[in-house]
Amino acid sequence: MTAAAVRHLKGADPVLARVIERVGPCRFTRRAEGEHFDHLVRAIVYQQLAGKAAAAIHGRILGLYGGRPPTPAELLATRAAALRRAGLSRQKLGYLRDLAGRAHAGVVPLGALADLDDAGVTAALTAVKGVGPWTAQMFLIFRLGRPDVLPVLDLGIQKAIRVAYGLRRMPTPARMEQIARPWRPYRTVACWYLWRSLDAATP
Fold it and tell me: What letter would DSSP give residue 171?
């Protein structure tokens, strides 16, 4: 997918072509290890936290299970106090319990997510408390490797588009959709380059 995506994007959008040239080769890869449940737990833990703080909390949670991710049944059986001591807020504890309960009961079809289209995956995941459209889109991109996802609510993508396209203010979702139209069907790779462009701009 990657080589074809880069060729398409460079030919379709001269602004994005300059971003691609500046960033260099595409190294986008999906996170293939572990289970879908593990990745959703991680996503919830990381919500609205700085990376280092979230990583520390996530590490302490894994430590409760011998350094590995818990199964839904194991998480449900863990005392709330232990998870709170690991650093989980009361709200996120509720989110994880809701996810684990739905996964354990088979209400959220984690094993069948790869067989659903993007809209189906989003609908299934956003039924879980604490999982909104942004988290579902990050799952589509980084877990399932879907090629044509545009996370219009992502602050990094908004900022990168504003800088690359010389906009005076942050773009609205509608403006982002308009700018990204030529990127189809490879908007995921375009977003990877936009995220990396922010890294490249940092001294």
Answer: P
